[in-house]
Amino acid sequence: MRKGSIVLFLTVAGLGLAACNRQTGQTPEAPATGAPIASLPLAQGAPPPMIVAPALTDLPATQPARNVSAPPRERYRYIDRAQTLGDAFADSPPDYTVDYQGVRPWVWRSGHGEYRVVEPTPEGERTYYFDAGSDEPFLVRDADYAYGYDQGGLAAIYGPGGRWVGYDAIAAERASRYLARARALYQAAVHQQREAAYAEAWRERRERVLAEQQAWDAEQQRDSEWRDWHDSQQRTEQPDWDRERAMRTAYAAQTAAVINALPSEGRHGPPPTVQTNGHPPSPPAQPGGPGPSQEQRVEHPPQPQIQAQQQIQAQQQLQTQQHADAARAAQAESLRQAQVQAQQQKAQADRDALRAARQQAKGAEQAQAQAQQAQQHQAQAQQAAERAAHEQTRAAKQAQDAQQAQAAQRTKAADLAQAQAQQAQQHQAQAQQEAERAARQQARAAKQAQDAQQSQAAQQAKAAAQSQAQAQAKAQQAQQHQAQAQDAERAAKQAQGAQQAQAAQQAAKQQTQADAEKAARRAAKQSQTQPQPAESSAPAGQGHGHGKKDKQDQK
Questions:
Q1: What is the spatial distance between Cα 56 and Cα 82, in angstroms, rounded to a whole number?
Q2: CA–CA separation, 283 vs 281, rounded Å?
Q3: Whole-angstrom Cα distance, residue 23 to residue 183?
Q4: Higher pLDDT residue, 8 or 368?
Q5: What is the rounded distance in angstroms from the CA atom of residue 84 to the CA atom of residue 235?
Q6: Which residue of 5, 66, 121, 378 could cross-link 153, Cys pair, CB 3.0 to 4.6 Å?
Q7: Is residue 288 classed as helix, strand or coil in its secondary structure?
Q8: What is the b/e burial string over 143-154, where b = at least 16 CB atoms within 10 angstroms of the residue's CB?
Q9: What is the mean pLDDT of residues 333-343?
Q10: 339 in helix, strand or coil?
Q11: Given a cut of 80, is residue 382 above it in pLDDT?
Q12: Which of 141, 189, 226, 83 is nearest to 149 (CA)?
């Protein structure tokens, strides 16, 4: 059974490559049909249980994303870039997957380095879009909304279909949670070990991933503002995206043949189980019932020839069944590819028709505008002609009036010239008189100036003499004042000396009086202590005492 599946796989893959080679031969300009540079071959067999990523409410809460709303003209910049990137990936399977905290997100990488990462959640698929070389997404899409980012801030919010809905605080809080998750997923997609995505898992979830892209395509066709922005960007970037899409479409055709060639039990078996919170559900019962009992096999053993024939018949039936399955799978794939191509061609035709209709409508509008502009030009020309005729009549009237005015002006100018000539003669006579008068005044002024100079010189000499006399008088007066000061100083010194002499005399007199008083007191005291002399000797003693007093007085 396994050997037949491998043979079938190689056969179908070879048919697909041969068909692609034939197409390449028919169209020399078609791109190579090899796998994208980052892709790994799809893994065969039953995929492991699917573990869903945390729901929005289970993601860590962070600070709400700051508002960096894009200008009105650029509000569809972010979703349009994501839609263009998804359209370039077409319906090709994931390039690879990585193991991030038990979840295995799918990763697509473009030839220029842009990334799309898709992870399953309880609400549905959640998709992250990254520019080349940036670990921050420019858009994240969940089951309900899409959030456009610019330099870590929230630039735009889009509804389920993709229509711009504006900014609100609740959406900013959701966007901040997705931003942290997106950075971690990008690091895992770039740096962790890559693993092949399972073909069966892609077949089960492919329609959900493509349905989101188709919803955007439909909304873009309905929204004129989005469509205008897309058309303005398509001129410069579309050739690169067309090459990416052609390669992806060819690769999707090859892998689709492999997926449809899976065994019947793979195609019709149950979908991969979903594991949440680390508790997988019970595995389903295996199909098939019990075989014949051992007792029956013992009682009725087959003959060798019959057993060999039965084995050959079984192998032939198996091969026939496998070839039939392969033929049905190839037919189904051809039919699906035809339907896909028809849908793509119809979508392209619709887009071309819509673009042609828009161009035709634009051409009609331009023609109508040109017709209106021509009518306006005609009306303007007629008005200009009427204005020109009116201006010509007015110019003729103005010319006639100007001629009459010029004649009147010439007459007036002649009269004015004659009057001016007479006035000039008068002015000349007056000027001559004024010149004579000025000459006389000048001579008189010169005489007055000479007299004034002489008078001023005499006054200056007189003033100098007076000044000199005053200076001499002041000098003499100063000398007198100096002499008087010296006399006063000498008088003061003499008065001071007299005062000092008088004070000395007064002090000497006072000293003399004091000495006399002391001598009197001493004499009185001595007279009291000595015996009284006889009366005959009294005159003599009195005379002696008187003589001592005179000596004291002389002293």
A1: 21
A2: 6
A3: 41
A4: 368
A5: 13
A6: 66
A7: coil
A8: eebbbbbbeebb
A9: 63
A10: helix
A11: no
A12: 141
Phi, psi of 26 (to 5 degrees): -70, -35
Per-residue pLDDT, averaged over 63-68, amounts to 87
Comparing 462 with 38, the larger pLDDT belongs to 462
Within 8 A by CB and 6+ apart from 167, the residues are 67, 69, 154, 157
Task: Kindly tell me if the per-residue pLDDT of 310 is higher than 90.
Answer: no
The answer to whether residues 81 and 158 touch, using CB atoms and an 8 Å cutoff, is: no
What residues have CB less than 8 Å from 52, skipping those under 6 apart? 103, 119, 120, 121, 122, 274, 275, 276
Nearest C-alpha neighbor of 68 from the set 147, 146, 149, 131? 149
Q: 212: burial class by Cβ within 10 Å (0-12, 13-18, 19+)?
A: buried
Q: Average pLDDT for residues 61-89, to the nearest whole number?
A: 91
Nearest to 195 by CA among 93, 99, 111: 99
35 is written with which tokens?
């796998």
Q: Is 128 exposed, middle or buried (0-12, 13-18, 19+ CB in 10 A)?
A: buried
The residue type found at 254 is Q
Query: Can you read off the two tokens belonging to residue 329?
Result: 């799978």
Amino acid identity at 392? Q
Closest CA to 138 of 74, 193, 93: 74
Q: For 174-190, give one letter per residue: b (16+ CB within 10 A) or e.
A: bbbbbbebbbebbebbe
114 Cα distance to chain centroid = 25
Q: What is the pLDDT of residue 145?
A: 94
Contact predicate 125/143, CB 8 Å: yes
Query: Taking the domains of the chain in order of start, what are their residue ranges?
Result: 39-248
Q: Where are the beta strands (DSSP E) in 407-538?
A: none
Rounded distance, CA 466 to CA 470, Å? 6
- Please give the model's pTM, rounded to 2 decimal places: 0.49
